[in-house]
Amino acid sequence: MPLALALSSTLLLAGCGLLPGEDERRTVTVWMMKGSASPEFVARFTEDFEKEHQAIDLDIRVQEWTGIGAKVKKALKDEGGDGPDVIEVGNTQVAQYVDEGGLYDLTLESARDLGMDDWLPGLAEPGNYNGAQYGIPWYAANRVVIYHKDLFAKAGIKRPPRTREEWLADTEKLNTAGNQGIYLAGQDWYTLAGFIWDEGGDLAKETKESSGDWRGTLDSAAALRGMEFYQRLQALGRGPRDADEEHPPQAGVFAGGDVAQIVAVPGAARAIEEKNPELKGRLGYFPIPGKTARKPGAVFTGGSDLVVPERSDDHKGAVEVIKALAGEKWQTDLARTMNYVPNKAKLAPAVAGEEGVAAMAAGAANGRATPNSPRWAAVEADNPIKGYMTAVLTGGDPASRAREASRKITRTLDVGGV
Q: Distance (Å, rounded) from C-alpha 377 to C-alpha 243?
């Protein structure tokens, strides 16, 4: 962990704008992930923060996503050295780091200084483990519907649908004349999760009888209703039933020009336009519709949380950095710079001028995260949800296939059963 840097000589202290007897300058080391913030944002933030906190120097180190899990775990266990004081982690990774030990409890700071009651649930919930807040929401991203405006106009659809039933009806109109109403791959399980959450179901739940004891719940009545809607929607296009949205990449399929809609993050539009420049200016965005027009459908919220290692030598300095990064000023700056969703719904107006990001922010207000088990990554590594979806879409009995997939999820989440 970084040590407070003692500038021992009076000359050095005077050169830093400090006088003998004042707090010594120290360095707070921050690990940010590649692509999360532009170099220009980092430079602006560093200059402003150091001006506001004259006893702190920032050392922001950009990390690669590849191999970051092992690197973070090592940093949480190492003593001394120049390790991080603040770490950006994926929002769904917090539980596993807490479970293995090494994160600083930020519950007090969250309630006192960080406005935790206003956080997006899809970022806040996975940062909370066993009633304590370890991860502080930084930014969010989630799926929306990207649509081909010309195909909507030709079908006589004047505005995007706001309810599931409107969505199905419009998609059926679009699924004519050789066009696909929607390209939805059969194993797009993140999109399925949203439909399940809308119905009141979940992928897995922690039992009330025993904390840390999880069971798969794809076989619940609510989850089966979510799968039924997925079947109806997926049938209105020619998406493969035995592959996910990256096989082939759905942006490339959409670029062919005969697909009316895909479910993706707004950034996919760049890949679409690169493959087919004729679509530039012809793409629109709307939140995934909900069961009623009162609110958009539930979506999986991806993004990042900020955590502090227990072994950090400067918890106070680390918290000051997080307060700044998670505060309104720099949330607004980051959202506008990177086209992210800010960590609080009330900050969504900061991105209102960007159609895709505005649609994403509207959906994020009803966002969720995957089950907050430290072993959920093991479920995704050999994902039984994908096999379940393909089985149902190719004629399998939904209830029996759901029970089978739920048992596999339960076995994976059961530490003693693996």
A: 20
**In the chain, pLDDT over 70 holds for what percent of residues?**
92
| Terminal-residue alpha carbon distance, the chain | 34
Task: Burial-class residue 91 by CB neighbours within 10 Å (0-12, 13-18, 19+).
Answer: buried
Pairing of strands 26-33, 128-129: unpaired
C-alpha to C-alpha distance for 184 and 263, rounded to whole angstroms: 7
3-state helix, strand, coil in the chain (%, to 5): 45, 15, 40
How would residue 79 be classed by pLDDT, with cut points 50, 70 and 90? confident
* 356 pLDDT more than 50: yes
As given in the structure block, the two tokens for residue 22 are: 């004042």
Q: Whose structure tokens read 């997006």?
A: 120
For residues 223 and 205, give the distance between their C-alpha atoms in angstroms, rounded to a whole number: 12
CA atoms lying within 13 Å on the CB side of residue 399: 1
In 10 A of CB 158, how many CB atoms? 7
Task: Answer whether residue 43 shows pLDDT above 90.
Answer: yes
Distance CA 146, CA 62 (A): 31
| C-alpha separations of 407 from 192, 196, 404 in Å | 18, 18, 5
Whether the bond into 248 is cis, omega within 30 of 0: yes
pTM confidence score? 0.89
Task: Look at residue 11 and tell me whether its pLDDT is greater than 80.
Answer: no
Whole-number Å distance between alpha carbons of 331 and 329: 6
CA proximity to 84, closest of 147, 141, 25, 27: 27
Q: Give the pLDDT of residue 16.
A: 38
Q: Do the beta carbons of residue 265 and residue 360 sit within 8 Å?
A: yes
pLDDT tens digits, residue range 274-299? Answer: 999 999 999 999 999 999 999 999 99
Q: Which backbone phi and psi does 59 adopt, to 5 degrees?
A: -125, 95
Per the listing, tokens 């840390």 go with: 212
- Residue 371 to residue 369: CA distance in whole angstroms: 6
Q: How many CB atoms lie within 10 A of CB 166?
A: 15
How would residue 207 be classed by pLDDT, with cut points 50, 70 and 90?
confident
Determine the pLDDT at residue 212.
Answer: 78
Q: What angle do CA 67, 69, 74 make, to 5 degrees?
A: 105
Would strands 144-148 and 204-206 be described as parallel, antiparallel, or unpaired? unpaired
Give pLDDT, residue 58. 98
